[in-house]
Write a structure and sequence with these properties.
Layout lengths: L1 H25 L8 H4 L16 E3 L6 H18 L2 E6 L9 H12 L9 E7 L4 E6 L9 H17 L3 H15 L2
Parallel strand pairs: 1-2, 2-3
Antiparallel strand pairs: 3-4
Helix pairs in contact: 3-6, 5-6
Pfam families: TPM_phosphatase
Protein name: TPM domain-containing protein
């Protein structure tokens, strides 16, 4: 009888363990995103993920073709001007309480913009936290002032976000920023 009880327990454990493995594998994203795009980030000692490319979609908001289109716009603009742009969607700011400070520090940590020109711009937003910040380098902010960035956020990006059109908001905002940044 003890042997039968042990077999039953072993069978029960083996069955449940195999179900756990199946459940975990079913939770993986089922999209066609390359692995380096869908891999979640781990906060380092600075609470910042490592920059991967021009568009860093850590909230998995954009489709692959949308990422490719935004990347093309940014790369074409950088080739013409040397100005650098990064777009970041993020679901958490780690230990940071201030989203704006996080966005500025992330942009500095990543080194967006050329050091001698300080010509970087980073758009950091979070669908989950319902926040957005455009962070500019010292050279960039002479042209793209806080007032201009705020106007673009309020009049172009936010209206699209409110209707769930995150790609359109970022794309239109990016185009507007580039048009002003000459």
């Amino acid at each position: 009888m003890k042997t039968l009880a042990k077999l039953f327990i072993l069978f029960f454990l083996a069955f449940n363990l195999s179900n756990c493995k199946t459940a975990k594998s079913e939770q993986k994203p089922s999209s066609n995103f390359p692995k380096d795009i869908i891999r979640p980030y781990a906060f380092g000692k600075n609470d910042f993920p490592e920059k991967r490319k021009e568009v860093n979609d850590f909230e998995f908001i954009f489709k692959v073709d949308e990422i490719e289109n935004l990347t093309k716009i940014i790369r074409d603009y950088e080739r013409k001007t040397t100005n650098q742009i990064a777009i970041v969607s993020i679901s958490s700011t780690g230990k940071y309480k201030d989203f704006d400070k996080y966005a500025i520090d992330l942009s500095n940590y990543w080194g967006v913009g050329q050091k001698n020109k300080d010509n970087g711009l980073t758009i950091v937003f979070s669908k989950k936290l319902r926040r957005i910040r455009i962070s500019t380098g010292n050279g960039t902010e002479k042209i793209l002032t806080d007032k201009i960035c705020k106007t673009i956020i309020d009049q172009i990006i936010i209206p699209e976000f409110k209707t769930g059109n995150y790609y359109e908001g970022i794309q239109k905002g990016l185009v507007a920023l580039i048009a002003k940044w000459k």
